Amino acid sequence: PTGALALALRRVRGLPTVITAHGSDVPGYNPDRFKRGHRLLAPAWRTIARSADALVSPSCYLRDLIRAGCDVPVEIIPYGYDAPRRERPPKRRRILFVSRLFPRKGAQYFLEALAGLDLTGWEVVIAGDGPMLAPLQEQARQLGLAVDFRGFLKGAPLDELYASSSIFVFPSVRDNFPVVLLEALSHGCAVITTTVSGMPEVVGDAGLLTAPGDVAAIREALRRLMADEALCAELGARARARVERFAWDQVLARHLDLYERVIAGVSPTHEPLAGRISEY
Which tens digit of pLDDT belongs to each residue from 113-125? Predict the structure, then answer.
């Protein structure tokens, strides 16, 4: 939405303009929530995108969605994240889900997958709030699952929960660049997520991927990790290494490089910078 303000400043002051898309501002993203608004705002979005000197996307997934509706050069710069520097508590036999509780986040598939497993000795925690809270609590009751719904957490309580959890499950069916995955990776959780949207770009080879909505595959991935502490430890080590590439100093350097190229490349007629597409 603030892209319109940036475009106005560009026209009035002649300032180079770099716009970063985050997801819901891009037509076609989350059509279950934004389809009508995107239909109305798409022409304005295309005008803004084509007028910017550079357009940034945090993920290849969102870049492709942008270019499906507006064929413009897009620079890929991921979100930055600095892993907490603190002592690592021992991992507990805990399976964790953290997110806002919307249908597309997939907590309902997580619960259904758990229902087919022997959870003796394991703790299941869902941290988050949202419109799906009551339906998920009822689903857990009907499935006979003992699930600890913690509500919305942040800061030290959330960090401590991640740090002491062995497995993190995020079966989202659509997400641009979920920060909860960065948080789970940074704390050395063995991650299970999906093969779609921005999830594989964040996790890489540091987790197990399943098709969205595939309850049987989620269940099998859980069974595999619950039975193999060595695999959990290996994925946890890969996770901590993976998250280093998103460190803020590296991400900021890429933004500064882009700004310098924009400043050097903008012509008096303000033709958009050709730019380069770089993937991480």
Answer: 999 899 999 999 9
